[in-house]
Design goal:
Elements lengths: L1 H30 L7 H18 L4 E4 L11 E4 L5 H7 L6 E5 L8 H7 L3 E3 L4 H16 L4 E3 L17 H9 L3 E7 L1 H4 L15 E5 L12 H20 L9
Parallel strand pairs: 1-7, 2-5, 2-6, 3-4, 3-5
Antiparallel strand pairs: 6-7
């Protein structure tokens, strides 16, 4: 049964992406000259993602302290990464940002085109030149007043615990003088294992998303490593608090 439900979801996901993209492409061509930050494209992606979320029941996603997202103020959003489902959950925040995503995703028809239209930022894992280009593009977005969202772990966690962080997001915040906004997600890993496509435990699924207090780089004296360590410790503590007596651990 779970395999059938999963197959239907992924099939619907692909079909809806094609339909949404075809419907929005002509509008994008008209508004793009007047929308340098590509806000329209991002809100289109939010609409599509939340449309898909409703298939599973949006009531299963519990977002806490949305008011801490700082409106449209430039900042660096960082989130832990348990599952592919995190992408949909973060779109449920309904806030503007630019994703930093694997370059290979941009090659996927319709999905990659949508990401390029929204001016998201590609990066090739393990390629220092690609990483340098990614950081330069992120700096440009921050200067232009956009917000950046990264997974500082670099990849999905296998056990649901928060892995070591990479320094890029924190260096960006220090260089640009913008706040870091940590976001802690729990529950997506239990629904969709890292290396699988079949959803699990959907009937009992609960996803919690906690937006933590923004952190100004000056709070750590502009020290990138200290900021990185401080944010990770706060996120680990928040994840522990979210789980509480449930102690729900995603499957590896």
């Amino acid at each position: 049964m779970q395999r059938l439900r999963s197959a239907l979801f992924w099939s619907y996901l692909a079909a809806s992406l094609v339909v949404f993209w075809i419907a929005v492409a002509p509008i994008w061509l008209l508004v793009a000259p007047f929308d340098p930050q590509r806000r329209f494209s991002h809100w289109y992606a939010i609409t599509w993602a939340n449309h898909c979320i409703r298939l599973f029941g949006a009531s299963r996603i519990h977002i806490h302290h949305r008011e801490r997202l700082l409106g449209d103020r430039p900042c660096v959003l960082v989130a832990n990464h348990q599952s592919f489902g995190d992408i949909f959950v973060l779109y449920a925040l309904r806030t503007p940002f630019k994703w930093v995503a694997k370059q290979s995703v941009f090659w996927v028809p319709f999905l990659g085109w949508m990401m390029a239209m929204a001016d998201y930022v590609p990066v090739r894992r393990g390629d220092p030149h690609s990483r340098a280009r990614m950081l330069a593009r992120c700096r440009e977005h921050l200067r232009d007043g956009s917000r950046i969202l990264l997974f500082p772990e670099g990849t999905r966690s296998r056990d649901g615990e928060i892995r070591e962080f990479r320094r890029g997001a924190f260096a960006l915040a220090v260089e640009a003088g913008v706040p870091i906004v940590p976001i802690v997600i729990d529950g997506t890993g239990a629904a969709l294992p890292r290396d699988g496509w079949v959803f699990e435990d959907l009937d009992d699924l609960r996803v919690d998303v906690h937006v933590l207090e923004p952190i100004d780089p000056d709070a750590t004296g502009g020290d990138v490593e200290l900021l990185q360590t401080h944010v990770r410790e706060l996120m680990i503590a928040a994840l522990h608090d979210i789980r509480g007596p449930r102690a729900v651990r995603p499957r590896a």
